[in-house]
Write a structure and sequence with these properties.
Oligomer: single chain
Shape: globular
Largest sheet: 7 strands, mixed
Number of strands: 14
Helix content: 25-40%
Strand content: 15-25%
Length: about 280
Amino acid sequence: MRSSRDGRRRDRPAAGDRRAPDGGTRRPGASRVLAVDLGGSGTRAWVSGVGLLGAGAVSGGSASRPVSRGRIVDAESCAGLLARVADTALGADRRDTVIVLSRPVLAGREHRAQARQLLARLGASSGMVLSSAEAAAACAGPAGSGPVLVVDMGAELTEVALLVDGATADARQTDWGLTDLHPDALPAQLAGSVIDMIACMWREDRHGAMRGALRRGPLLTGGGALRTDVTGLIGARLGTAVRIDPDPSTAVVRGAALLAGRVPAGTRPGPAPAVPARPR
């Protein structure tokens, strides 16, 4: 298993600072938000006041896959895809708009800079590049409600991130996901990988945040959260209830829109329900 980690806590901007995460800018007067998640299983886009865009608006026009393992591998194809999505969602007039792009929690500096460059080409009033874990956690409740452990089990990446006050305190990642595993072995291998990453983070937790997050129940997102054979094993091995987002495949893109602060209250998803752990 290949894994990565980043134990550095990312400082959040002060209340009066209009700098957005990852160097973007955010304008309080903006009224329209487009959130985009370039996932391994496909691109998802969420528009304030509208909801999830249809598959036709986010499907690629060529055989090229602009994103692989959470990384942008074809910048021009990615730019074309984002432009097509923005045209469908926002039209030609981009005044008073915010476009939010999610990134893997351990994305490197080069990836983050490339994402910002792609956003700048779209002509929105402002742009933001957000951690997928921080976006998903936004669906679980306000940042000040306690530490959150996010487990995102996607098609090509599996990520575990500990968030404190809405910022990433520690994270682990494996560069494989659901599409890489044999169906018969998938539940045990995926759950085992998640448990290994959580155990590693537990050993290095000096402030008790992991204990609080596990007591609250880890938040499971991504396609793996739709599989009860996987979520049941994770809950049983941790000995705690797990929380499954009501729509785990769109948790990142919905959370990104929530963090942009422009999604109408009526479209905001409720807290993820707890799922009791199975007996060991």
